[in-house]
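Notes, p. 3: input format for complexes.
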Amino acid sequence: MKVSILIPVFNEEENLALLAKELLQVVNGQPWQAELIFIDDGSTDRSPQILQELAQKEERCRVLTFSRNFGQTAAMQAGFEHATGEVVIPMDADLQNDPADIPRLLAKLEEGYDVVSGWRKVRQDKWLSRRFPSILANRLISWWTGVKLHDYGCTLKAYRSSVLKGTRLYGEMHRFIPVYATWRGARVVEMAVNHRPRRYGKSKYGLGRTFKVLLDMLTVKLLGSYSTKPIYLFGGLGVLFAFLGLLTFTGVALEKILIDQWPHKMTMLLFSTLLCTVGVLLIMMGLLAELMVRIYHEAQNKPIYLLQSDLHPTTPSPPSGPAQQEDNEVTQPELDPTPTAQSGQGG
Ligand code: UDP
Ligand code: MG
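Output follows (347 residues plus uridine-5'-diphosphate):
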């Protein structure tokens, strides 16, 4: 069996050597073969050089380099497309995930699961800006998607590569793969993993990401449950609102008839009506735009990232995916300055 370990890297110079050492220690002497794919997501520090040296020294290391910062999700997407193992394990480059958990994840997978999702049970991040919003968001996602996990955001997960086939990730969506997988009938299980404080470098995220994740949650539901019947969502909400509108109208009419009261005194009511309407319409338009972005990228087989180099490829890229994309990569940037709809996710 071959295991592909994917590591998105954005300015992690102090962590890389340590991480590689820990990883190789874990990987050596295992009954399975390993491939370490580092995806350099446009780092501006010494990470690219360190990775280059690593790829030259260690034949199991492969380095994909992005032309700029496209975000962690794009990095993971690139990793999925280039991985050649039967099992794919993404993890963070900042040493917060523990490589020693990898054999445990694999053992769990062997028990007959398709996805083993890491759960940072004792999470070593700031409480107010990271852990607390994350707890709320995780609860909400569990309820909303019906897939009961405690920690969607943990990068360390193990997937059978068959589960990942055809996945196209946008926004912050890598965390929702277990949801998609469950909806498609995969067996998903959660496992507590070690989480360590970040010793070097800075976290690339703050509170803002929680909001992005919540919005992505809407998209996931639309695409997952309603992708073939959008009218159930749009129509359902439409009928609900029309019904509420009718109800309010009846109320107002009764007020006029019974106590001869016009609603002219409630100007704020108009504002709130307007704001709610605009809000709902914008969300709906956003969902439609999400669909269109997918058509835009997928109809042309346009990747959401741009590769600058691929050091030490182990096998030729599969014909349908990255190979064609590399054509795009060379020819399109001049014609089209916006090769991706999702630029830097760093905020
Ligand atoms: N990362 C990335 N591109 C980005 C931001 C982050 O590849 O635009 C990588 C980063 O180098 C790390 C992982 O994604 O390996 C997780 O990032 P971070 O540790 O900042 O997130 P946190 O653990 O704070 O949620
Ligand atoms: Mg981290």
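The mean pLDDT is 86.
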